[in-house]
Amino acid sequence: MSIPALEVSALSALRGHGAARRLVLEPLGFTLAPGESVAVTGPSGAGKSTLADIVLGLELPDSGEIRVLGQHWSAPKRSHAPARRRLVQGVPQDPAAAFVPRWSIRTSLQQAIHRLAPPAGPGTGIDRAAELAQFDTALLDRCPHQLSGGQLQRAALARAVAVNPSVLVADEPTSALDPDTAQAVAGQLLSTAANSGIALLLITHDPQLAAQCSRTIAIRPPSR
Questions:
Q1: CA distance 173 to 169
Q2: Where are the domains positioned within the chain?
Q3: Model pTM?
């Protein structure tokens, strides 16, 4: 039996201070196999983005744990070694804000690869990542402001897969796109994860998008 790409066990989170401290994510548990996609749905305030941030290592849980390929992930120390940090990558809701404006897309991918997963040869990682994300390589030398929203989101996907992650976390990745572009980007995100054997944790309010995933986990706001 293969090791799950992602294991979430009895995970919960509290936010605030003193008397105002409150539960923002009720205890939650699930696993993702390599290449599997799981949609997390629920109303505002259910803790979907909190879950995404915890899995990405941007926040710490108050209880429970996360394992990535069997390794403890939700440890008190947030600074994982590069070899570990590359295992979980994010696809942002607003890709324009996630890129350095003055850098070309090629430079952004090069920097990600250099920091987290040095390529076997010059340009190999970039070309492969662009191919997986179906990002037009003719656009690699353009800056973010020269791309459309859909092109930028594909560029963000290319940057994420360029370091060979085991888990992708996408928090409402199509919410800023028009319906046709959103459908195309969503389809590419799902196919890229499946074809690469990457586990995809997709935070979405879109039932049609959620229905395209392997399964759906519905969470609700914590009871007060």
A1: 9
A2: 6-218
A3: 0.90
